[in-house]
Design a protein that fits this description.
Elements (H helix, E strand, L loop, with lengths): L7 E4 L2 E5 L23 H11 L8 H16 L2
Antiparallel strand pairs: 1-2
């Protein structure tokens, strides 16, 4: 059995758009969809902030961001 992939939009459980023509016959399909990543619980966020605060306190963020942007721009022209 072969597989074909089409992109579709489903709203409220109803098929609204398909990017390719589908056969008229009955089909068995597997639906795989993207989900938004869940936000961690607030206590987990606070734990991570507490654990990592102060790690980079001696870094000049403006200089570092300028270096990073320059390296991106240099790599974009290759």
């Amino acid at each position: 059995m072969g597989h074909k992939i089409v992109e579709a939009i489903i709203e409220d459980g109803q098929l609204k758009h398909v990017d390719k023509k589908l056969p008229r016959e009955r089909m068995k399909v597997h639906i795989i969809y993207d989900t938004n990543e869940e936000t961690p619980p607030e206590h987990e966020i606070l734990r991570v902030v507490k654990e990592t605060s102060g790690i980079y306190k001696e870094i000049d963020e403006k200089t570092e961001s300028k270096k990073l942007r320059e390296s991106w721009e240099r790599n974009a022209h290759r």
